Amino acid sequence: MEKKEIIQTLDDIRDMMAKSSRFQAISGVSIILVGLYACVAALLVAPVARGWNCLSLPYDEYGNILLNTPHLIRMMVLSAVLLFALSFATVTVMAWRKAKRLNLPFAFDKRMFQMLLNFFIPLVAGGLLCLALIMQHHYGLTSSIMLIFYGLALINTQHYTYPVFRFLGYGELILGLLDCFTVQYAWFFWFLGFGVLHILFGILYTLRFGKKQAA
Amino acid sequence: MITGLEHLNKAFESKIRLGIMSVLVANESADFSTLKSLLQLTDGNLASHTRSLEDLGYIRCEKSFVGRKPNTRFYATEAGRTAFADHIAALESFLKNQK
Question: Looking at this predicted complex, what is its ipTM?
């Protein structure tokens, strides 16, 4: 056996182990789309939240965000839920298509269930916490909690898909934590985390994994 | 004749058998159709290779029914995991000695 052949064999083994145990069908383009949705949503919601200045939310003299009219809160929550549903649907449909194109496994089996479970446990916990705080009229931390728990959900999922997703998770986590310590830039951090970071990560992800898989 | 390759396992000379072991070592178990689509094999081809690995005691299978459809699930045995690890170690040590 040639040296080259042995290297190739070891590569094949590594590939097969990864392909069979990790979910590799997530499409980079869908991550970019999720980022774009988030940008659009953030831009749409910003004027609703506070006039036309998009960089920060309005505060009263006690440091509370001024969006505690029931109608606005309902709109914000509804748009967040819609945004999540649209993003999730996009990623799922595009992953299904990529799996079909590249003959990758895509079935709701034990592995997929484990991945979704590990993703949704932190996410649902964070979502409920946000909801509870909103219902008690504590709005200040909503954006940081969303970013932090989404980051933790991604980090928690790294063993079930490409491990690089943890870097997106770290990014969201850091932005969320920075957001905790600042008062006025909630909208800005949300836009950066869910919009810009997704787009950047999606581009890098496509460059790294798009070509390799197609080959 | 290249020295250092005498520890290689003859059972894993076939790419297909090596592929089956890779899947079963990385995962707890895999069913027939999953293996088939991952390795892109025909039913008969996969069946003959799994049988030979089973005869060696490297994998075991459990047959059950999902509704009326028979479902075969494969697991790597302890002996199979050891043999697979030894095989990879032999390949890697060969590469190291080459440098």
Answer: 0.81
Question: Which DSSP string corresponds to B9-73?
Answer: -GGG-SHHHHHHHHHHHHSS-EEHHHHHHHHT--HHHHHHHHHHHHHTTSEEEEEEEETTEEEEE
Ramachandran sector of residue A92 (left: φ over 0; alpha: ψ -120 to 50; beta: rest): alpha
Angle at A73 between CA A69 and CA A78, to 5 degrees: 150
Q: State the Cα–Cα distance between residues A41 and A121, nearest whole angstrom.
A: 24
Query: Could you read off the pLDDT of A121-178 as tens digits, one per residue?
Result: 999 999 999 999 988 888 778 889 999 999 999 999 998 998 899 999 999 999 999 9
The minimal CB distance from B22 to the residues A3, A13, A105 is found for A13
- Could you read off the pLDDT of A62-79 as tens digits, one per residue? 555 555 566 677 878 888
Domains within chain B, CATH numbers bracketed: 13-98 (1.10.10.10)
Over A90-135, what HEC string results?
HHHHHHHHHHHHHCCCCCCCHHHHHHHHHHHHHHHHHHHHHHHHHH
Q: Taking the domains of chain A in order of start, what are their residue ranges?
A: 24-214
Chain B residue numbers touching A20 (CB-CB < 8 A):
22-23, 26-27, 30, 34, 38
Structure tokens at A117: 């479970």
Predicted TM-score of the model (pTM)? 0.77
Q: Do B18 and A13 touch (CB under 8 A)?
A: yes
Closest by alpha carbon to A155, among A121, A197, A104, A200?
Answer: A121
How many Cβ contacts (< 8 angstroms) between chains A and B? 52
